[in-house]
UniProtKB/TrEMBL annotation, chain A:
InterPro entries recorded: CHP3 (IPR052490), EF-hand-dom_pair (IPR011992), EF_Hand_1_Ca_BS (IPR018247), EF_hand_dom (IPR002048)
Name the UniProt record assigns to this protein: Calcineurin B homologous protein 3
Source organism superkingdom: Eukaryota
An example molecular function term from Gene Ontology annotations: protein kinase inhibitor activity
Localization, UniProt: Cell projection, Lamellipodium; Cell projection, Ruffle membrane; Cytoplasm; Membrane
Family named by the database record: Belongs to the calcineurin regulatory subunit family. CHP subfamily.
Keywords: Calcium, Cell membrane, Cell projection, Cytoplasm, Differentiation, Lipoprotein, Membrane, Metal-binding, Myristate, Nucleus, Protein kinase inhibitor
Residue ranges of every copy of the EF-hand domain listed in the record: 112-147
Cellular component, GO, one term: lamellipodium
Membrane topology listed for this record: Lipid-anchor
Taxonomic lineage of the native organism: Eukaryota, Metazoa, Chordata, Craniata, Vertebrata
Keyword Lipoprotein: yes
GO biological process: cell differentiation
PANTHER family listed in its UniProt record: CALCINEURIN B HOMOLOGOUS PROTEIN 3
UniProtKB/TrEMBL annotation, chain B:
Residues spanning the membrane: 37-56, 68-85, 97-120, 132-153, 165-185, 197-227, 247-270, 291-313, 319-345, 357-375, 387-410
Protein name per Swiss-Prot or TrEMBL: Sodium/hydrogen exchanger
Species, as recorded: Hucho hucho (huchen)
GO terms of molecular function: potassium:proton antiporter activity; sodium:proton antiporter activity
Location of the region described as Disordered in the Swiss-Prot/TrEMBL record: 617-664
GO biological process terms on file: regulation of intracellular pH; sodium ion import across plasma membrane
Length: 220, 689
């Protein structure tokens, strides 16, 4: 699919709409935003995302930006990151934040949960080895508390350790002292966030109407 | 003097009757029945019996005095509801709740009032003297969903959070509408004519009443928060400030004819995060239990008085009117909910399903507020008795019929129930993570949405507001840390206070399992021995303590806490068995202390060759007589936070020395905690790395 070609034709949008589930208007809006972020170029780079002022105060800014360039989120079976993405990849990442449609079957709902939780998991699992180790989890908590100053740093470890213990306790149950718990696998992750209702919580509004975007784009 | 005595002894008698009724009737005499029938029904029946008894004796049964109701009985319930209002689901659904509360109540009032007027025009009913305004007044009284009744019934059915907050939020917020409509129609019916200007003024009045009430409540809430900042030296009266300021908020707004209920809710909501950051743990417990107690007593009294008033009150029974009223209330509620949901679902992301709508409609119970408002009607108001009778009938119908059948219906329809989940640190982490993630994605998306504004409010709160309202350094503390601390403290306390050991629980994991370490181990046999000794000793001590639980509003889920404490115990035992050589030192500490900052998850590693002598363990331990204190001693080892031994370098002697220092630090901290020093100061964390 030629994402590197000049998008904007109805046909391409329709194709994208069918594949991602967005409506044509929504894709049009997202495209507008994409153009705005990239200064009308074809591809989006990390610097483009990094210059969004709304992300300045976000403690997990780096991880969010990384998530857009993570190959695992782009429905590719590889690991690693890319340097730039086109509109189609941008849209693909955004599909993870679509709200759940009405009237889904149980299976569809479960698939949606897995997809969204997979996105979260990929954000935590920075070395792409399929498990969230203690160091990776600590990093997550430290980043979350990074704006909290020195107090945050000291207790971040404690919190991460507590969380790991909880996961291990819930998923593995009784462990012999010499067993070793490598890290949170995706299945464990699903289990501990079972009651989290992710399919109703992890979504952002995508408007159908044209939002004359306010000064929420780049500062230049 | 005799007068005072007699009136206060009357009050006392009533209160005792109420408490006794609740206790015996609801729990002891008819245990099975109370599972089927909600307490409110049972209490009304008790009231009926008492009223009947009084009448038989020949006395005049007291009627629920409206002043008593609005000034004394209602505020505790509303404050309890407002203070413990779950903020997150409330703010996420506030639009829907407002639509139901305002437009839904308006629709109900006009529908019922209008159709009743049409009914009264029919000759055969014999009520042609009732004019439109009177009917509309009646409609406005009987249309509001009552928070007391909703609380009483929904408490037991554990419906899912969304539906619960919708019905409950609606019952709280519709007070403004009810107040305005009631006063308006009463004024109008005195004057006799209504002009367009009056209607316009009515709308303005509504905004003034509701927003004014919220403003008054918020002001008092901020005052209370500000006061609590300075109460570090007078901890004992902290709860008093909370109650006083809230009651003042209620009284002030009622004085200005604003909505008292909304003021109370706003006060509780605004006050809570700051007050809880400032007050001590004991004050927090006091506030919680007093609120539950007062609201429980109030609720009991209200329902009993409802029963008594039914027996007492002057009745004017008109079959048609009453039955049509009941039917109309039901119909209007159902139609209103369906219609409004249809519109609302266009704007909601998480749509309301048919089942949700049904429960929302069916859960629209009327209660004592309607009765009191009816009672407040001036006695020369025509048809007052008729109205009162109809109101009582509607209340009885909704409370008895709907209240009793809602639970089987919920089960029959397989409506989603509340997910019982323990507070989990993972969920908390991910809640916060998700918040930031969604805010970020909204930023990327370019659309200022829900999360963006929430983030802005949070930042404003953090930077400006918390600085003024929270004592000491605590205002810098992020929520995640506060949550973690609360959880640890709670677990430590539970560990100390919980009761019997249940049978085998899935044991869990210690840090050791998570960290890959090659540690020389105690011989298994030694470990087992130690573990057995510790366990038996713990068991002896635990049996001496009692577990307690409260049922009202799920104060204390004893089973759940026990399980957690069990898990905790096992963890502890495991870790205790790993320790070498320091045990004796810790175990000799006489402790009636709780750890304020248990670093429970930390395990210390002596990476090498300290010889462990099993003798030191039993001696120290058994020298402590089996007082309730000893488990503290055991827990102390666990609570001693460990240092960098978590890293892969050798712990060695350096580790041991630092640990003893930590031990001292910890004991001092414990002593301070027991003398109720307030929320734990942040700077006590230096040992944590």
């Amino acid at each position: 699919m030629g994402a590197s070609q000049s998008a904007g034709t109805e046909h391409e949008f329709q194709d994208l709409a069918d594949r991602t589930g967005f409506s044509l208007e929504q894709i049009g809006n997202i495209n507008k935003r994409f153009r705005q972020l990239t200064n009308n170029e074809e591809t989006l780079s990390r610097e483009d995302l990094a210059s969004i002022p709304a992300l300045d105060n976000n403690p997990i800014r780096a991880q969010i930006i990384n998530a857009f360039f993570d190959k695992r989120n782009l429905h590719q079976n590889e690991t690693g990151t890319v340097q730039e993405i086109g509109f189609e990849e941008f849209l693909l990442v955004m599909t993870h934040f679509r709200p759940a449609a009405m009237g889904l079957t149980e299976e569809e709902r479960e698939n949606l949960r897995r997809e969204k939780l997979r996105f979260l998991f990929n954000m935590h699992d920075t070395d792409s080895d399929g498990t969230i180790t203690l160091e990776e989890y600590r990093w997550v908590v430290e980043e979350l508390l990074s704006k909290a100053g020195i107090i945050g740093q000291e207790t971040a470890k404690a919190i991460a350790d507590a969380a790991m213990l909880e996961v291990a306790g819930t998923t593995r149950g009784k462990m012999e002292p010499d067993e070793f718990y490598e890290g949170i696998t995706f299945e464990n992750f699903l289990q501990i966030l079972k009651t989290f209702d992710i399919e109703t919580r992890m979504h952002v509004r995508f408007l159908n109407m044209d939002t004359a975007t306010l000064r929420c784009g780049k500062s230049k | 003097m005799a007068n005072y005595c007699s009136s206060s002894s009357m009050v006392d008698l009533w209160l005792t009757t109420a408490a006794a009724a609740r206790q015996h009737v609801c729990f002891h005499l008819i245990p099975r029945l109370s599972g089927v029938v909600p307490e409110s029904c049972l209490l009304i029946v008790v009231g009926l019996l008492v009223g009947g008894l009084i009448k038989v004796i020949g006395e005049e049964p007291p009627v629920l005095d409206s002043q008593l109701f609005f000034l004394c009985l209602l505020p505790p319930i509303i404050l309890d509801a407002g203070y413990f209002l779950p903020i997150r689901p409330f703010t996420e659904n506030v639009g829907t709740i407002l639509v139901f509360a305002v437009i839904g109540t308006l629709w109900n009032a006009f529908f019922v009032g209008g159709l009743l007027y049409a009914l009264c025009q029919i000759e055969s009913v014999g009520l042609t003297s009732v004019d439109l305004l009177a009917c509309l007044l009646f409609g406005s009284i009987v249309s509001a969903v009552d928070p007391v009744a909703v609380l009483a019934v929904f408490e037991k059915i554990h419906i899912n959070e969304l539906v619960h907050i919708l019905v409950f939020g609606e019952s709280l917020l519709n007070d403004a509408v009810t107040v305005v409509l009631y006063n308006l129609f009463e004024e109008f019916s005195k004057v006799g004519t209504v002009t367009v200007l009056d209607v316009f003024l009515g709308v303005v009045c509504f905004f003034v009443v509701s927003l004014g009430g919220v403003l008054v409540g918020a002001i008092y809430g901020i005052l209370a928060a500000f006061t609590s900042r300075f109460t570090s030296h007078t901890r004992v009266i902290e709860p008093l400030f909370v109650f006083l300021y809230s009651y003042m908020a209620y009284l002030s707004s009622e004085m200005f004819h604003l909505s008292g209920i909304m003021a109370l809710i706003a006060c509780g909501v605004v006050m809570r995060p700051y007050v809880e950051a400032n007050i001590s743990h004991k004050s927090y417990t006091t506030i919680k239990y007093f609120l539950k107690m007062w609201s429980s007593v109030s609720e009991t009294l209200i329902f009993i008085f409802l029963g008594v008033s039914t027996v007492a009150g002057p009745h004017a029974w008109n079959w048609t009117f009453v039955i049509v009223t009941v039917i109309l209330c039901l119909v209007s509620r159902v139609l209103g909910v369906i219609g409004l949901t249809f519109i609302i679902n266009k704007f909601r992301i998480v749509r309301l399903t048919k089942k949700d709508q049904f429960i929302v409609a069916y859960g629209g119970l009327r209660g004592a507020i309607a009765f009191s408002l009816g009672y407040l009607l001036s006695s020369n108001h025509q048809k007052r008795n008729l109205f009162l009778t109809a109101i009582i009938t509607v209340i009885f119908f909704t409370v008895f019929v709907q209240g009793m059948t809602i639970r089987p219906l919920v089960e029959l329809l397989a409506v989603k129930r509340k997910k019982e989940s323990k507070p989990s640190i993972n969920q908390e982490i991910h809640t916060e993570f998700l918040d930031h993630l969604l805010t970020g994605v909204e930023g990327v998306r370019g659309h200022y949405g829900h999360y963006h504004w929430k983030e802005k409010v949070n930042r404003f709160n953090k930077i400006y507001v918390k600085r003024w309202l929270i004592a000491g350094e605590n205002f810098m503390e992020p929520e995640l840390i506060a949550f973690y601390r609360k959880m640890e403290l709670k677990q430590a306390i539970m560990l100390v206070e919980s009761g019997q050991l249940p049978s085998a629980l899935p044991s869990t994991v210690s840090m050791q399992n998570i960290q890959a370490r090659a540690t020389p181990r105690l011989s298994k046999k030694r470990e087992e021995e130690i573990r057995r000794i510790l366990r038996s000793n713990l068991q002896n001590n635990k049996q001496r303590m009692c577990s307690f639980s409260y049922s009202r509003h799920t104060l204390f889920d004893a089973d759940e806490e026990d399980n957690v404490s069990q898990v905790h115990l096992r963890k502890m035992e495991r870790r205790v068995s790993m320790m070498k050589g320091r045990m004796s030192h810790y175990l000799t500490v006489p402790a009636d202390r709780e750890s304020p900052r248990p670093g429970v998850r930390r395990v210390r590693f002596e990476s090498n060759n300290q010889v462990f002598s099993a003798d030191s363990v039993p001696t120290a331990h058994f020298e402590q007589p089996s007082t309730p204190r000893t488990p503290d001693a055991v827990s102390l080892e666990e609570e001693v936070p460990k240092r960098r031994n978590l890293k892969a370098d050798g712990g060695g002697p350096r580790g041991t020395v630092s640990d003893s220092n930590q031990g001292e630090l910890n004991y001092q901290r414990l002593a301070r905690c027991l003398s109720d020093p307030g929320p734990n100061k942040v700077e006590n964390y230096p040992f944590m790395s």
